[in-house]
Amino acid sequence: MPGTFEPLPGGGAAVALDDVEISIIRSLAVQLLELIGPGPGAEAPEDPLAELFAEGPSEPPADPVLRRLFPDAYSDPELAPDSPKDAEEQRAHSAEFRRYTENDLRAGKRESALAVIGSLDALAPVGEEGAVLKLSPEESRRWLGALNDLRLAIGSRLEITDEDDTDLLYRLPDEDPRKPMVMAYLWLGGLQETLVATLMP
């Protein structure tokens, strides 16, 4: 089981992690939380009804990682609009969609990252043998979302846009400063793939 998720009887998944792996995943999840931000109403409690109807941003984030995590809903870089009017309509539809969905999307990503941190913090003290993380089906889904977000964030920093870029990562020399980030990206991909397999019927 080292390094790969395996299904648990009755649902859920388990993986053996050593202290270094736990530290890496936890650190990445904390960084993801910091990037996503605290969300509306985090500083002071607000009227729950008002918060329910609070509008989010209408413009895409400036940070390329956040743009990857919260892409425009109505724009496809491979399908150029037929006219300036079509492009303007696309932008308007994307802005409206973002205004009413981004806050919820951010909240969901925060909850998944917090679930990862919480489950790692709840592990028994880690020795040389490491620890076995056991997740319920719901926790597994949270972890799957967080692993996907972490890979999107790292992939954005590495400027990975397609499968060809991933192939090039395997050939990076050890002295390349991107190598540790590449290794994390590939390792998280393996975790994600085996976790998906445990959730399949």
Characterize the structure shown.
The chain has 201 residues and is mainly α. It contains seven helices and three strands. It has helices at 19-36, 48-52, 64-69, 84-121, 137-157, 163-169, 179-199, and strands at 6-7, 13-17, 131-135. It has a three-stranded antiparallel β-sheet. A hairpin with a 5-residue loop joins β1 (6-7) and β2. α1 (19-36) packs across α4, α4 packs across α5 and α5 packs antiparallel against α7 (179-199). It starts with 5 loop residues before the first strand and ends with a helix. Mean pLDDT is 83; it is low at 41-45.
Helical region count?
7
The strands making up the biggest β-sheet line up spatially as 1-2-3
Unreliable stretches, pLDDT < 50, 5 or more residues?
Answer: 41-45
Quote the average pLDDT. Answer: 83
Strand content: 5-15%
Helix content: 55-70%
What's the SSE pattern? Answer: EEHHHHEHHH
Q: How many extended strands? A: 3
Q: How widely separated are the two ends?
A: 20 Å
Please summarize the sheet with the most strands. Answer: 3 strands, antiparallel
The radius of gyration over CA amounts to: 19 Å
- Class by alpha and beta content: mainly alpha
What does the overall shape look like? globular
